[in-house]
Amino acid sequence: MPYAAPLADMRFVLEELAALGRGAPEEPVPADLLDAILFAAGRFAETVLDPLNEAGDRAGSTFENGVVRTPPGFQEAYRRYVEAGWNSLTADPSHGGQGLPFALSAAVAEMWTSAAMSFGLCPLLNRGAVTLLEAHGSPQLKKRYLEKLVRGEWTGTMNLTEPQAGSDLAALRTQATPEDGHYRLRGQKIFITYGDHDLAPNIVHMVLARTPGARPGSKGLSLFLVPKFLPDPDGHPGERNGVKTLRLEKKLGIHASPTCVLAYEDAVGWRIGEEGSGLELMFTMMNNARLNVGLQGVGIAERAYQRAREFARERVQGRPLTAPPASEAPPILHHPDVRRMLLFMRAGTEASRALSYYAAGLIDRAREGPDAKACAARADLLIPVVKAWCTDLAVAVASEGIQVHGGMGYIEETGAAQYLRDARILPIYEGTNGIQAQDLVLRKLARDGGAAARLLLAEMRETALLAAGSSSADIAGIGRALADAVATVESATAHLVQAEPPAAAAGSRPYLELFGIVAAGWLLARLALAAEKRVAEGSGDSAFFAAKRKTARFYGEHFLALAPGFLAAVGSGESILDFPLDRL
């Protein structure tokens, strides 16, 4: 079943939640340009990337005689990707970029993931490397590396994890010794996505390491740029650097993406920023990656939903209760519980898309304008929610897709299982979702006593009141559910702000899930109101907008209705912390 990019859905969310493509003269992306980019990206995803997905999963990347090879077709697809200029969408024009909004690139990135997640991981990491160098690179490093990374001629990676240090970056041991204007790096890194491959002639690694005499812990880490090949005087890949691939990891999913174990054997590197500031600078890349991983959750959920929906439209099993007795049995789409599963998948996907695009739009607005500071604070609050909630939901949606298929979904040849296997890494990538929850509660809430969260909740309450007063039963339904859910988050927030850190940490995971459900519900309510307004104005497809209202109502009844149940779990610190460890 081929992928079909949901361009109308994307355009609607970008217009209403990210303020793109409305046609006003001051808009950064005119409506016709937005349409052209989305259409072209959809065609590329559908015709170039989607055919690689299942074949790439079966073949996987390989490692033989020290050489990493991606599956057949990946090299040609990457060449076409670079030639079409997709890699440079959001980069600074002074470095060869197109300077387009991040929110627009969010929609494009979603399409890459839906079509072939394993392929899309390479551009994702490269975009983070570009963002890091733009913000913190020296003029010399920018001149030598940035334009090639912006074009995608070379690719970038992020090197954090080591065998003894997973998410605990304070335990990193890789050493960087100064030597005549550069550094020599020694150590080993694991789980490095696209750490080696055959798509580009050079790979630029962003590496955390320790200098001699550095402080212990995370404050002793510095950041280094280490290329696979040292550029010659003309800027071309020259001598092979001391970066060696030891093996590829064998994984549950994303088989076509080479996940490498790298050894640094006196590799030449250059420091970015000051000594000891490495982790702070790396967060520029990590936050970019966290939001993009959330978008990957959207992409996988959309793809799983499309496949399950098409299967349900064709598969005949049993006689639905709604079918006339003498008629031929219709497809399983007519079974009420199959409809429920598909609506869960649809509503979850649309909710996570709304939340991700909204956060991306905040990042655009945080760059300039009168509300830049407020937008930056809200984006900072929402990034852990986007990363964790959207990826957990992607796993749930992909799992439900298998359930729609029944026994056929458990068989690899139907393709449904791949989405679950591929999605499962997302809650682990870029800091596990438990770490995201602690970041939300112990850093984002704690630093301002919950002020940023309360400001957002006040906006949610205004939307709930507006929606509850709608003449549309669908919109009024989500409005009432949203009002109750917002009250729950307000209570949970007040509790966690006052709680001791261990108890707050114990309740952080259900709080993040609660926050994600309600924040996404707020945005779906806004979209439902926008759909109602467009129908009243006589603009657009009335059936499309009617479906948006009904999806919002389902979300209110099946997602927001669960919100009060999280309150007890948020306050469950005592039952967690008092349980005897020797009985776990």
What brief labels describe this structure?
584 residues, alpha+beta, Butyryl-Coa Dehydrogenase, subunit A, domain 1, Butyryl-CoA Dehydrogenase, subunit A, domain 2, two-stranded antiparallel sheet, 17 helices, 11 strands, 57% helix, 12% strand, globular
In short:
The chain is an alpha+beta fold and 584 residues long.
Question: Overview of this structure, please?
Answer:
With 584 residues, the chain is of the alpha+beta class. Among the domains are: 133 residues, Acyl-CoA dehydrogenase/oxidase, N-terminal domain (Butyryl-Coa Dehydrogenase, subunit A, domain 1); 122 residues, Butyryl-CoA Dehydrogenase, subunit A, domain 2; 141 residues. It has 17 helices and eleven strands. Strands 3, 4, 5, 6, 7, 10 and 11 form a seven-stranded mixed β-sheet that branches. Strand 4 and strand 5 form a beta hairpin. Helix 4 runs antiparallel to helix 6. The model has no long low-confidence stretch (mean pLDDT 95).
Q: Which descriptor suits the 3D outline?
A: globular
Structural class: alpha+beta
Count of DSSP-assigned helices? 17
Number of strands: 11
How can the largest sheet be summarized? 7 strands, mixed
Rg from Cα = 24 Å
Q: How much strand?
A: 5-15%
The whole-number mean of residue pLDDT values reads 95
Low-confidence stretches: none
Distance between the termini: 45 Å
Helix proportion of residues, in percent?
Answer: 55-70%
Order of helices and strands: HHEEHHHEEEEEEEEEHHHHHHHHHHHH
